[in-house]
Amino acid sequence: MVHLKNAGITDPTKLDESKTHAVRLASEKIGKDLYRDVYDITFYEKSGNAIEVITSSEASSSECSMSGVDVYVVSKKIGGP
After folding, report:
1. Rounded to whole angstroms, how far apart are CA atoms 43 and 74?
2. Nearest to 31 by CA among 54, 55, 62
3. Which residue from 13, 26, 60, 66 has the fewest beta carbons nearer than 10 Å?
4. What's the predicted TM-score (pTM) here?
5. Between 18 and 63, the higher pLDDT residue
6. Triad 20, 24, 30: Cα angle to 5°
């Protein structure tokens, strides 16, 4: 959310957090106790506007955030339902 706010895409006060939807797309072991997690997250503003992002970050069994988070805004989805 912080990346979206800093980029001027949305603001936390505009979001309906109860509608936020996150799906883990992949989790890959990249070290002894280190994993790369990729998520597809859709935020919904109170206005009804949806903002979809793909995130990639590193995590361990003791810490959910071992690195910064890369955030990619999905501007167009092709195919699928």
Report:
1. 12
2. 62
3. 13
4. 0.85
5. 18
6. 140
CA separation for the pair 12, 21 (Å, rounded): 15
State the residue for tokens 């890959």: 28
Write the pLDDT tens digit of every residue in 44-66: 999 999 999 999 999 887 766 66
Q: Which residue has the tokens 């603001």?
A: 11
Measure Cα distances from 28 to 60, 64, 77 in Å: 11, 14, 24
Q: Cα 30 to the chain's mean position, in Å?
A: 20
DSSP labels, 14-62: GB-GGG-EEEEEEEEEEETTEEEEEEEEEEEBTTS-EEEEEEEEEE-SS
Tell me if 37 sits within 8 A of 27, measured CB to CB: yes
In contact, 22 and 41? CB cutoff 8 Å: yes
- Domain locations in the chain as residue ranges: 2-73
Token pair 């109860």 is found at 18
